[in-house]
Write a structure and sequence with these properties.
The structure is a homodimer of 291-residue chains. Chain A has ten helices and eight strands. By secondary structure, the first copy, chain A, is of the alpha/beta class. In chain A, strands 3-2-1-4-5-6-7-8 form an eight-stranded mixed beta sheet, sandwiched between helices. Chains A and B meet through α6, α7, α8, α9 and α10 of A and α6, α7, α8, α9 and α10 of B.
Chain lengths: 291, 291
């Protein structure tokens, strides 16, 4: 199978590594930055560096558009215009309604692997990045099911778990499990930093500030500004809804505190505890007062 | 030096281990649950198990009250009533204004180590739990400075970094760097779990849900209900203020999204990025789109 990867950064590069080593695929990569393409070639993430999208998708059976959200729609459009009839075109963008136009093409299937790392760039690509990760797929009702099956097969070989979901349900879900966490981490880190300044507590040199609770909670704060501004805007409707729901949740806690309502706080915390167990599976819930 | 520890759980037990091994102290422990005391003795966290507070503090130069927040004030009051004139009494509670009465005694110095773990109980106690951790101390202006210096010395020997701060400043700071993170994690985990249910996406068996961003952000959710209900209530004024500030922050983001204001979102994210670098020190900020 020949796989084309358009955009060889962390995600595209990791797809390439896994596709070559685990799926025995021939991988052709294109990146608007030729240095990224050359690095991918040197790292073994691709077999061949294409000079343009046309050359990359020529003869490919599977295309992954792994460009940043801001240029993703255009990349997918070009890929569909240039790819053959027997080729499935997918992407790895974190919002799926944004690619509405492409969904009219039976060869297109939107995708989104729930994987990533704190560092961008092909030099951080890993063959096992998708190991055990959910990989959402949002085929339109009109999508070609044979091409869809081929895409699922490749994704499974990469080590991921393909999961079909409607595009709008995907975007609402992501607003709550990915975009809102980033927004809350930003809100929190700004407030914490301001508090350290206001109380005139200079941070101990070299030591991370606060306890493990703070450090976990703000780890995703301040993610790449260009990428995340695009993501927030691409999913703004669902994200606004999620933010309003979070404000409602905070107002409930505020009311319980105003009334010193221990029972309401305890019930709320127990619900959170059950939800955490459900989401994090076997991971031990915190029982101690780790700050 | 003889050190008394009142309450030998995770924190009290870790103080005992470090005090015995690193400060060469003789450690006497008391716990209302005799099994916890016996376990502490067996683990080497204390030299001696006292039958009551009076026996524990008899002849001690330093007392650490490491009881849960709900019974902490009473434990400190008893310790001060029973300890000698040349004895410093401290605690490890996560709010400091709550022990206002004790502050009138020159032998009392409120304390709070920024350390903890996801698991409670003396069986998880570790000699190195406080290694490099900030240990806030909130002496009243009237506190005996000689006793205070002795306490600092012991804390340094445990491996921690003593840092003096006003009790009210401490509580405002904790509201933002510890209590609010827990509140936000709860709000988030409830919303995420509800979203998975609403979109009818059963969680993959055994696999943690969502991406690394979600998992980090909700790690402290649903912490021990009894402990945390007490903590939230003990610091309710400062926490209400912090929650209102967080709501304000969320409303700003919501407004930027409503107006599709990319520049406002980018500026906000850059500020969060700078704050994160400042708080997490050398830790790499996330640049990729890890969900």
């Amino acid at each position: 199978v020949k796989i084309a990867i358009l955009g060889v950064g962390l995600i595209g590069g990791s797809i390439g590594l896994a596709a070559r080593r685990r799926a025995g695929a021939r991988v052709c990569g294109y990146d608007p930055d030729p240095r990224a393409g050359a690095a991918a070639l040197e790292l073994g993430a691709i077999d061949e560096q294409a000079p343009d999208i046309a050359a990359a998708v020529a003869g490919a059976q599977v295309v992954f558009a792994a460009a940043p959200v801001g240029v993703l729609a255009e990349t997918v459009r070009e890929a569909l215009a240039l790819a053959g009839a027997d080729c499935v075109v997918s992407d790895v963008g974190s919002t799926k309604l944004a690619l509405q136009d492409a969904r009219e093409d039976v060869r297109f299937v939107g995708g989104h692997p729930l994987a990533g790392a704190e560092t961008a760039g092909v030099e951080h690509a890993r063959e096992d990045l998708f190991e055990g990760a959910t990989w959402y797929l949002t085929p339109a009702p009109s999508a070609d099911r044979e091409l869809y099956a081929r895409l699922c097969d490749v994704i499974e070989r990469l080590g991921a778990l393909p999961a079909e979901i409607e595009a709008d349900a995907h975007d609402r879900l992501m607003a709550r499990i990915s975009h809102l966490p980033h927004v809350l981490a930003n809100v929190l880190v700004l407030q914490a930093a301001e508090a350290f300044e206001r109380e005139d507590k200079p941070l101990a040199g070299g030591q991370p500030a606060g306890g493990p609770g703070l450090r976990d909670t703000i780890r995703v704060a301040g993610a790449n500004t260009a990428i995340w501004t695009d993501i927030y805007l691409a999913n703004r409707e669902a994200l606004i809804e999620a933010i309003e729901q979070a404000i409602g949740g905070l107002e409930d806690v505020r009311a319980a505190l105003l009334h010193a309502d221990a029972s309401a706080l305890a019930t709320w915390n127990e619900r959170a505890r059950a939800a955490r167990m459900k989401l994090l599976g076997g991971d031990t819930p915190p029982t101690a007062a780790a700050p």
